[in-house]
Amino acid sequence: MKKKLIMLIAGEPSGDLHGANLMRNLKKVDNSLDFIGAGGKKMEQEGLIGITDMDSLAVVGIKEIFGKYASLKQAFRRLTEIIEKNKPDCLILIDYPGFNLRMAKIAKEKNVPVFYYISPQIWAWGRNRIKKIKKYVDKMFVILPFEKEFYSQYGVNAEFLGHPLLDIVKPNLSKEQSFSSFGFNPNEILIGLLPGSRWEEVKLSIPIMAQACKIIAKEVPNVKFGILVSENIDVKKIESLVPHNKQVFHFIKDKNYNFINICDLVLVNSGTATLEVAILGKPMLIIYKLSFLSWLILKMLVKIPYIGLANIIKGEKIVPEFIQFAATPSKVAKEALSILVDENRIITIQKNLSEVKAKLGKEGASEKTAQAILEEIQKKYN
Questions:
Q1: Can you say whether the dihedral through the CA atoms of 310, 116, 167, 180 is positive or negative?
Q2: Rounded Cα gap, residues 179 and 176, in angstroms
Q3: For residue range 53-112, what is the model confidence (pLDDT) as tens digits?
Q4: Of 175, 318, 195, the residue nearest 257 (C-alpha)
């Protein structure tokens, strides 16, 4: 039997993380697999032959798409050529619906099985895409508990096998070791800043977070701040937007669960990171800001009352959200201070986050998904 060729497409850092873990588990089941497509450094480290740079695909908001139209068009053409020439055994799409659903159409026309891993959030906006998903996607492997029921009501083949973050979000140091490693004092108040993994979102969120911290520092003398810097972001670019020196802000490269685990409070940009913080049970404030045009368009399209995944899964606002015009340093600082001095509120938030974590299923989602995908592919040979 010939070696199987798996094609994957991820368009942003969170997709790269989940794609890499899926690839690792695919290889555990069948170590003869070859991988091709689009992804980031993590997927390439697992053996992906990258046809296009993931950075050329990543966009935040709707207005920003126009600035990357040429690179998106070129990436689409190159990936289409791979499908036509190499005829992969399957195409695995990871989130990124605007681009990926067009690729699904191409693959389906060439009789290449299409699997979607990490569903696009069409339950929030873009429900018109459900028809394309039903037409072009053979099976959805969803990671949020309510998504299976959502797709099922439209006749889409969907399966929920748990959330892959449960296998990833695991500190490997004790809190004592973490305090020592990062140079923080356990008697101090520690606030973590997670401004995002794409520069377009970082440059909008970090000034708000940093100014809020400036206000907090005036009220809480024994407070320290740590900024988690994504591996694809230049630390110096963030430093230029922070109105403090390094003695006040500590810059920590890439996602570090050991650091988040010792934080008393986290200021986090909306996205996958909110769920990572939730799994660790840390009180948080969610901040979300887009360009004005993107915000106007999304405001008309979004059909759900919350933007943070923890709030969406729980079905109520269990952690505060500061969206667009409400995302001001003074409002963020005021809410942060009110949480820090209210032990009962902290306990309530932690209890609610624990319930959110429980709804995410059991560990082993990537492994189960890998096994299910290979079983689906095997049907081609039977």
A1: negative
A2: 5
A3: 666 555 544 555 555 667 788 889 999 999 999 999 999 999 888 899 999 999 999 999
A4: 175
| Rg (the chain; Cα; Å) | 21
Sign of CA dihedral 64, 66, 68, 73: positive
Q: What was the pLDDT predicted at 71? A: 77
Statement to judge: residues 61 and 206 lie in one domain: no
- What is this structure's pTM? 0.86
Q: Please compute the mean of the pLDDT values over residues 228-236 and round it to a whole number.
A: 85
Rounded (to 5) percent helix, strand, coil in the chain: 50, 15, 35
- What is the C-alpha separation between 284 and 320, in angstroms, rounded? 7
Query: Which residues fall within 8 angstroms of residue 299, CB to CB, at 6 or more apart?
Result: none
Identify the helix (H) or strand (E) that includes residue 227. Answer: strand 223-229
On whether both 146 and 204 belong to a single domain, the answer is: no
Average pLDDT over the chain, rounded to whole? 89
* CB atoms inside a 10 Å sphere around CB 336: 26
Whether residue 183 sits in one domain with residue 88? no
Q: Quick one: which of 60, 135, 67 has its CA closest to 102?
A: 135
Domain of 61, in residue numbers: 5-164+364-381
Token match 């199987």: residue? 4
**Are residues 105 and 196 part of one domain?**
no
- Residue that is written with structure tokens 């305090």 in the block: 179
Together in a domain, 210 and 328: yes
Q: Which of 25, 103, 20 is nearest to 57 (CA)?
A: 103
Per residue in 305-329, pLDDT (tens digit) is 788 999 999 999 999 999 988 999 9
Residues 125-148: what's their mean pLDDT?
89
Closest CA to 356 of 307, 298, 316, 296: 316
Q: At 292, which amino acid appears?
A: F
pLDDT at site 239: 84
Phi first, then psi, for residue 332 (nearest 5°) are: -65, -45
188 and 293 co-located in one domain: yes
What pLDDT sits at residue 245? 57
Clarify whether residues 295 and 308 are in a common domain.
Answer: yes
Q: What confidence score (pLDDT) does residue 298 get?
A: 66
Residue 170 lies in a domain: no
In this structure, what CATH number is given to the domain that contains residue 303?
3.40.50.2000
Q: Helices then strands (H, E): number in the chain?
A: 18, 13
Between helix 329-340 and helix 199-219 the angle, nearest 10°, is: 50
